[in-house]
Every structure is written in C-alpha cells, then in structure tokens.
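Page 37, continued from 36.
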C-alpha cells in the first residue's frame, strides 16, 4: 500500500543568520529566519512525510512557541518525523524536493543534501531527489526576500517480517 503527501514552506532571508538548507550549512551573507534553524527544505519534506501519513503538520508536532525547539537543528525534527512514520507501519519509498531561490546557487550543494537527508531518513541517497530553481526574479523569492521549498513523499507499507 502506498501513501503520498506534499509539503510547502517559506522562510525569510535575513542578515546575521547562518544558511541551513537540506541539512547542509551553506556559506552565504544571509540566512533563513525562524524559530528553529529555519531549514525550509527539511520543513517542506517533513510536511510531505507527515501529510502522506495523515499526521497533521510540522507546526502541530513542533510548535514555534515551544522553547524546546528554539534554534533546533531541523535534522532532529526530520528524524522524529521518520520515527512517527515508522510507528504507523510505513517506510519511505522516495521523496522529491524543489528549492526556489534566486541566490545562492543551490546546485553545487545538492549531492551533500541528498546524503544528509538520506542519513536522517535511514535510506539510500537515490531515494532523495532535490531540485533547484529560481522564479526568474519574480515575487518574493525572485527579489531574494526569502527561500521557498516544495516536497512530495511516497510512503510504502512495511512488509511484515515472518
Ligand atoms: Mg518552516
């Protein structure tokens, strides 16, 4: 049995913050603002995974009013989401992410992101697709005001062990 989910997230780009994307720290003059490390790609992925299992959304599980999650590494949240998925009897089939950013260039970092996310999800990097695009200088991502990310995830029912 298969279950599909989608996720979307946006964070504002500001000065004085490190830029974390897909579990990778990218050297850049600005970073994403948020209660956690604001890793917009992981947040979209978490929502896709939770959505596939009909387990609400990332804000439901990790409220931004909770001091426990202040500055938290989003990889910790992704591992927690995978534990919830596992409890429901599902495992990851594959996931596909699109990161929308005018700058910096995302492409050189994609292999590292695939490895990082696969490690969090206990899967092979070939199950994790990451794509980068711009919005041709249009809208808030085009003006460099923020970065957005979309994700879809497919879950498979774990086969019962004999
Ligand atoms: Mg977010």
């Amino acid at each position: 049995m298969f279950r599909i989910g989608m996720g979307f997230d946006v964070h504002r780009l500001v000065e004085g913050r490190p830029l974390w994307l897909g579990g990778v720290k990218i050297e850049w003059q600005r970073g994403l603002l948020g209660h956690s490390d604001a890793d917009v790609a992981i947040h979209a992925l978490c929502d896709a995974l939770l959505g596939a299992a009909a387990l609400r959304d990332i804000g439901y599980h990790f409220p931004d009013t909770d001091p426990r999650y202040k500055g938290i590494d989003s990889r910790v949240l992704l591992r927690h989401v995978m534990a919830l998925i596992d409890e429901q009897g599902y495992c990851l089939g594959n996931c596909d992410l699109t990161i929308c950013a005018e700058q910096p260039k995302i492409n050189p970092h994609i292999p590292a992101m695939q490895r990082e996310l696969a490690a969090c999800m206990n899967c092979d990097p070939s199950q994790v697709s990451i794509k980068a695009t711009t919005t041709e200088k249009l809208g808030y991502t085009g003006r460099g005001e923020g970065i957005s990310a979309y994700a879809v995830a497919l879950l498979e029912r774990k086969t019962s062990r004999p």
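The chain has one domain: 2-31+50-157. Flag for discussion at group meeting. The two ends are 18 Å apart (CA to CA).
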